[in-house]
Amino acid sequence: MRVGATLLRWAEPLLVPLANIAAALLLSGLVVLAAGADPFAAMAVLLRGSLGDPASLGYTLYYATNFIFTGLAVALPFHAGLFNIGGEGQAYVGGLFASLVCLFLGPVFGWLAVPLAVLAAAAGGALWALGPAWLRVARGSHVVITTIMFNFIASALMTFLIVKVLIAPGQSAPESVPFVESAWMPSLGHLLGPSPLNLSFPLALLLATAVWVFLRRMRAGFELRAVGANPEAARAAGISVARATVLALGLGGALAGLIAVNELMGAQHRLLLEFPAGYGFMGIAVALVGRNHPLGIVLAAIFFGALYQGGTELSFDLPQVTRDLVVVIEGLAILFCGALENLFRRRIATWLGKEART
Amino acid sequence: MSEAGTEFLSILAATLRLATPLVLAALGGLFSERSGVIDIGLEGKMLGSAFAAAAAAAATGSAWMGLLAGVAAAMLLALLHAYAAVSQGGNQVVTGMAINVLVAGLAPVLATAWFHLDGTTPMLPSAARFGALTLPGFASLGVFYRQVISGHNGFVYAAALAVPAAALLLARTRFGLRLRAAGENPQAVETAGVSVSAIRYRALLLTGLLCGLAGAYLSLAAGAGFTRMMTAGRGYLALAALIFGRWRPVPAALACLLFAFADATQARLQGVALPVVGAMPVELVSAIPYVLTLLLLAGFGGAARAPSALGVPYRRDG
Question: How far apart are CA A85 and CA A98, in angstroms?
Answer without folding.
Answer: 22
